[in-house]
Amino acid sequence: MKTEYTQDLELQRILLREINKKLKSQKALQNKDSATPSFGELQSMCEQITKSQKRASYKTILAVAAILSVGFLATSFMSLDNSNESSPLSTYYVVENVRGDKLGINTHLALSDDSVSVRILDRVGLDAPTINAIKMAILSEETVEIDGSITHKTRPDDYSTYYVGWKGALGSITEPTKNILPKSFVFSDSSNAQITIEIVGHTNPDGYDGITRSILSADNNSITKSHITVYNADKKSSNEIETIIRHEFGHALGLKHSTDPDDLMAPTITSAYPFISECVLEGLFHLYDGMSQEEYECKS
Predict the structure, then answer these.
(1) Could you tell me if 75 and 95 lie in one domain?
(2) What DSSP assignment string belongs to 214-228?
(3) How confident is the prediction for the chain on average, in pLDDT?
(4) Is 286 inside a domain boundary?
(5) Looking at residue 40, what is its pLDDT?
(6) Cα(118)–Cα(141) distance, rounded to whole angstroms?
């Protein structure tokens, strides 16, 4: 996984919501002349958001508005100010073997109930907001509605739901599965936790920023434990760490990589919305329902 993720995550969410509102109001007008927001309108919108959010530079907001005004929304949150540019993030999953333009699925997590224990090993002394960001990548139930013109997957004004955290995402699956689907996550200090997240300051010898190692059962039919490692964490922002955790946690649950470049589980992430998609949830449902294929072709 590689990404340039220089903008504040909260600002991204707010901008997306405001843009979606703007697009909805334009549709109601049914006026071709108002089909594309003007630069001035978008600049004003961004300035209003900035007054309440004060977490991004005025230069960046203007740059985002300029990009939006010509319709390149998919790249609107890439690095626009070289002084704040982040290096790409690369991660690796030890059992990946993806073929074709599909979502790779491996095997399900072995559970006796729907609760999963998670341990955080902080080797660098992260601050409280960063620890909270890691937890929110797992526990958040927040959703983001994104217009199809932004994702390039559906028609404009056709909205898709994305999930910020795995608890909210998995909780949206209501159909029963053959194998127990995880629905709750409990943080523990026990060495027997099913998923361990280790935060370290040293560099991975192969240059990866994150790796997930999963241990399979004797019959290779389920995952008994997973260990996520985030490297160079003391040099990363909380948003970068949160994105890595959200991605790697998908591996710990049994997913491989997606060949959709806009998906959270893509090996290279350039998306401004690295959240949990409906495609990911479809793949997890079929994985925990006993699907034996190594790939799942998304229908959404």
Answers:
(1) no
(2) EEEPTTSSSEEEEEE
(3) 75
(4) yes
(5) 52
(6) 17
Q: For the chain, which residues score pLDDT lower than 70? A: 1-105, 149, 151-156, 292-293, 295, 299-300
Q: Tell me if 233 sits within 8 A of 241, measured CB to CB.
A: yes
Domain termination residue (choose one: 57, 83, 109):
83
pLDDT in tens, 167-215: 999 999 999 999 999 999 999 999 999 999 999 999 999 988 889 999 9
Give the domain extent around 208.
91-296
Dihedral angle sign, alpha carbons of residues 281, 147, 267, 126: negative
3-state secondary structure of 41: helix
Cα–Cα dist 219/99, whole Å: 24
The confidence score (pLDDT) of residue 158 equals 79
CA distance 290 to 82: 47
Q: Which residue's entry shows tokens 């799942």?
A: 296
| 255 shares its domain with 282 | yes
Whole-number Å distance between alpha carbons of 252 and 244: 12
Question: In which element (H, E) is residue 167 found?
Answer: helix 166-171
- Which residue, 216, 207, 209, is CA-closest to 95? 216
105 falls within a domain: yes
Shared-domain flag, residues 40 and 162: no
Tokens of residue 2, six digits: 């590689």
